[in-house]
Amino acid sequence: VVHEFLDSRAALRRGVVGFCASEAFARAAAEKGAAAAQITGEPELDPVSYEPVGGSAKKLRVYARRLMRSGVTGTVLPADPAQLPHEFRRAAETLVAEWMERSRHTQAHILEIDLWRRAGEKRFFAVFDPKSSDTIWSLLVAHPVYGNEGWHFCHLMRHPDAPKGVNELVVLTAIEALGDEGVRYATFGPYAVPEAGEFIGFGRLAERIVRRLYGIAAKRIGYGSSVEFYRKIVSGPWQPRFLVIWPRRSLVRGFYTMT
């Protein structure tokens, strides 16, 4: 399929940039003269069998238990949008607006957020302030991944005044709820890795240049905190994701297009 796709693009005199492509796609494209760089990874997990272990898992449980002892709990909102409480809608909109405003002054990458567009296809999980039902401390919005019959934990937002651990608690709430429903696939989506991985189809000089530039960008953008959070959740395995550029001679243009 990849070979046929590239042949069809060649017939139209077009190039291809594959963003966050799978390893199978990258290797198949390389057979047709593409270059691929593993600069993203995707943490996945199975909610049914999820059982975090190790030092990170211990910290995770400590955060959750500390919050629950103080009366803080995770909430699974109804899957039917018509049943969503009015106070939840108002609190969620407020949290998103404030989060967007704070992020506007940082280098954080922000995906478009429209809470109620196709709301019936999404799932919402939240941690409320136990003393104020109209304040959400943490909100997780999950989007469907139809091909895998699972969910993408797409948007995770935290109130600035919330205690430590609310994001961990809302994620654990979502995993437990989906596991109880028999869902076998969940992902946090692709993230830039702290250090570039395998390169396929690159010349030695081009690889050195790209690795060097990526190393500088990774430090400046600061994705490390996100990666550490998902390691704390003990999500895995991390699937490699590639930037694929075809034809190989279009490296500069491909990176420009991706940027």
Please write out the topology.
Blueprint: H1 2-11, E1 16-21, H2 23-30, E2 35-45, H3 55-69, E3 74-76, H4 86-103, E4 123-129, E5 132-145, E6 150-158, H5 166-180, E7 186-187, E8 191-192, E9 199-200, H6 204-221, H7 224-232, E10 238-246, H8 251-258
Parallel strand pairs: 6-7
Antiparallel strand pairs: 1-10, 2-7, 2-8, 2-9, 2-10, 3-4, 4-5, 5-6
General description of the model:
The chain has eight helices and ten strands. Strands 1, 2, 3, 4, 5, 6, 7, 8, 9 and 10 form a ten-stranded mixed β-sheet that branches. β4 and β5 form a beta hairpin. The longest helix is centred in the middle third of the chain and has 18 residues. It is elongated, with a radius of gyration of 20 Å. It starts with a helix and ends with a helix.
Largest sheet: 10 strands, mixed
**In what range is the share of β-strand residues?**
25-35%
- Summing up helix and strand content along with how strands pair, one would put the structural category as alpha+beta
Unreliable residue runs: none
What coarse outline follows from CA principal-axis ratios?
elongated
* Fraction in helix: 25-40%
Distance between the termini: 26 Å
Radius of gyration, CA atoms, in whole angstroms: 20 Å
What is the overall pLDDT average?
Answer: 87
Number of helices: 8
Task: Tell me the total number of β-strands.
Answer: 10
SSE sequence, one letter per element: HEHEHEHEEEHEEEHHEH
